Amino acid sequence: MGENPAAADAAGIPVRAIRFWYVTLGAALAGAAGAYLSLAVIPSWSEGMVAGRGWIALALVIFAGFRPFSAAAGGLLFGLISAIGFLGQARGWPVAAPVLNMLPYLGTLAFIMLPAVFRRKRRRGGEAPAALGLPYFRSVR
Fold first, then answer.
1. Residue 6 CA to chain centroid, in angstroms?
2. Distance CA 59, CA 36 (A)
3. Alpha helices (H) in the chain, listed in sequence order
4. CA-to-CA dists, residue 89 to 49, 75, 93, 97, 122, angstroms
5. Which of 30, 34, 83, 103 is deepest in the core (most CB within 10 A)?
6. How many CB atoms lie within 10 A of CB 60?
7. DSSP structural state of residue 37
8. Along the 141 residues of the chain, how does pLDDT read in single tens digits?
9. Cβ–Cβ contacts within 10 Å for residue 25, how many?
10. Does the global pTM surpass 0.85?
11. b/e sequence 38-53, b meaning 16+ C-beta within 10 Å
12. Cα(43)–Cα(25) distance, integer angstroms
C-alpha cells in the first residue's frame, strides 16, 4: 500500500480499509509497548520514563532500510547494547552509570553514521515507500 496505492486499488484491494487497520494495529502495539514499559520494566509511572526510546526506534527503521527482518535484527542489537549497560552496572564496572545509560544512544548514532563514514551505498530496497504518509483518494489517480 505504501509504494503504489493506485495499483493496489486497481487490483481490487481496499486501500483505505487496509491502511486504517494497519494504523490501528500500530497504535495498539505502541500502546502495548507503553503499558509494558510502565508495568513491567519500570513498575511505576514517572516523568520522562520513555527517555527518547521512540527516536531510537525511528532510527532503527531507517537503519534497517524499511525491511522488517532487518528491523527485528536491529532491535535485538539495540536491546543487547542496552543490556550491556545494565550488566556493567550490576557487575560494578568502573564506568559511571550515566555513561552506561548512554550506550543505546551512542550505538544509535554509530549505526546511523556508519554508511556515511564508509561511504557505503545502500542496497536496493533501502528507501522509504514512495507513498508513505500521502493520503490516497480513489477519484484522484
1. 27
2. 21
3. 5-10, 15-36, 53-63, 68-91, 97-101, 103-118
4. 19, 22, 6, 7, 36
5. 103
6. 20
7. I
8. 788 999 999 999 999 999 999 999 999 998 998 888 888 877 777 787 887 888 888 888 887 888 889 889 888 988 898 899 889 888 988 988 888 888 888 988 887 777 667 665 555 556 788 888 888 888 876
9. 10
10. no
11. eeeeeeeeeeeeeeeb
12. 25
Residue appearing with cell numbers 500521502:
134
Nine-digit cell string for 97: 552509570
Q: Which amino acid is at 61?
A: V
* Contacting residues for 70 by C-beta, under 8 A, at least 6 apart: 64
Closest CA to 56 of 35, 38, 77: 77
